[in-house]
Amino acid sequence: MSAVQSAQARRWANWQRIAVLAWPVFIGQLAVLSYSTIDTVLVARFGALDLAALAVGNAVYTSVFVGLMGVVLAVSPLAAQRFGAGDSQGVGDSLHQAVWLALALTLLGWLLLLNPEPLLALARPEVQVEAIIRRHLGLLAVALPAALLFTVYRGFNTAVSRPKAVMVLQLGGLALKFPLSLLLIHGAPGLPGALAFEGMGAPGGALSTAIVVWSQLLAGVWLLRHDAHYRPFGLHQGGLHRPNLAALKRLLALGLPMGGSILIEVTGFTFMALFISRFGATAVAGHQLAANLVAMMFMLPMALGNATGALVGQRVGAHDLLDAQRLARHGLELALGLALLLGSTMFLLRLPVLQLYTQDPLIIAAALPLLFWVAVFHLGDAGQALCAAVLRAHHVTLAPMVVYALAIWGVGIGGGYWLAFDAPFKAWSGAQGFWAAATLGLLLTATGLGWVQGAVHRSALKRSSAPQR
Q1: SS3 198
Q2: Where are its TM segments located (predicted)?
Q3: Rg for the chain (alpha carbons), in Å?
Q4: CA 384 to CA 386: how far, in whole Å?
Q5: What is the rounded distance in angstroms from the CA atom of residue 299 to the CA atom of residue 308?
Q6: pLDDT of 362
Q7: If you ran DSSP here, which 8-state letter would residue 411 be given?
Q8: What is the rounded distance in angstroms from the CA atom of residue 345 to the CA atom of residue 338?
Q9: Inter-residue contact 283 to 431 (CB < 8 Å)
Q10: Distance between CA 55 and CA 34 in Å, rounded?
Q11: Which residues contact 3 (CB under 8 A, 6 or more apart)?
């Protein structure tokens, strides 16, 4: 076999290794994102005020949840390296300590969700919309602790190459989510007598989400206690381990920059929604459709990144750095190729895709110009997702956070504000200005993270080849 054939065979083998872990993550996360899609579609048919409230309320909640989620997901790279090194008890203890971290972070999340005044001041919503937003966030606060604890379960399962267990629970949640949202958003006015009730609009979707995530968490806890696969990690007996200060410090040292990076990325969308809301309910409703499409498309590179990062972390733990480097490179190639295909397809089918959400011509007209940027944005999203996951596998999280801050906040939000409100030319004013700048910021993010990843790989290989004294 020639060198070229050998390299191609390794590439195909690694793509298969990544795909085996990625497809359950993709299906499961797509199911979770469908919660928001279901609510968006149902609320779009309920009323424009509730759709605008959903856009702002979801932006606030997502910023809070995803930032905290990024911190607790530190369990994944820590457990992956221990799993690769054969430290089963250490893998199990990582889960216990991450649970304590999630519970502590819930208190911070409640403080932010129940006191959203600073973010609402930026959005300046109409009085009626603000009242809906507050009810929506209050119900999402009920969902927050279960969502963070289930994130621990998800990250742990990815690290130990068991994503199918998470996928099954997420699909079960989706089956429960649709009928609950339909009932709570639109109500059941046709039922007889006292059984009839009016729909809650956007807050009804939040209540259905709370019911779903608590159900998923309880099922996940039962599996940890009774599934034989988890026995080597000591999860089937005894209660929760006591907090370990040293372990919690390791989680925070890795997780805080991870959470910061993800928070920066997500608050890019938060501030976009808040600033675009100044142009009125129709503009922010159109942005919500485009943002929901980007989030759905992101599930594929995110799944590939999670799978690649887990495999890289396991190989780093096993001290096989050459295989780790090949996995990272092949994962990036796969993600970028699929992103180009998916983004192009979404752009070509942009009108029928938007018509699946709503038949309102004003909302469709507001969203339609944004879908060119959605296609290009997705390519940058795929690149940054893979590079960030690989860097986390190497326990490198601070440098990526700096890259995110400069590119997404500096170029994306700063540039977007200038284009939307202050630029002397008006071709990209309004929502298009924010999307154009956000796309450029994300492409710069992917480039910067790729450079950091190359430096980390070179440094790791140099250290591994140095003679031991």
Answers
A1: strand
A2: 20-38, 58-78, 98-116, 136-153, 165-185, 205-224, 251-277, 289-313, 334-356, 362-380, 401-421, 433-452
A3: 22
A4: 6
A5: 14
A6: 87
A7: I
A8: 11
A9: yes
A10: 15
A11: none
CA dist 445 and 130 (Å) reads 33
pLDDT at 469: 43
- Vertex 389, ends 386 and 391: CA angle to 5°? 110
Q: At what angle do helices 245-276 and 48-72 cross, to 10 degrees?
A: 160
Q: What is the 3-state secondary structure (H, E, C) of 220-271?
A: HHHHHHHCHHHHHHCCCCCCCCCCCHHHHHHHHHHHHHHHHHHHHHHHHHHH
Phi-psi region of 266 (alpha: psi -120 to 50; beta: other; left: phi over 0): alpha
Distances (CA, A) of 77 to 29, 315, 329, 397: 19, 11, 18, 11
Distance CA 337, CA 439 (A): 18
Residue type, 229: H
Give first-to-last CA distance, the chain, whole Å. 38
Sites in the chain below the pLDDT cut of 70: 1-4, 123, 188-197, 237-238, 425-427, 464-469
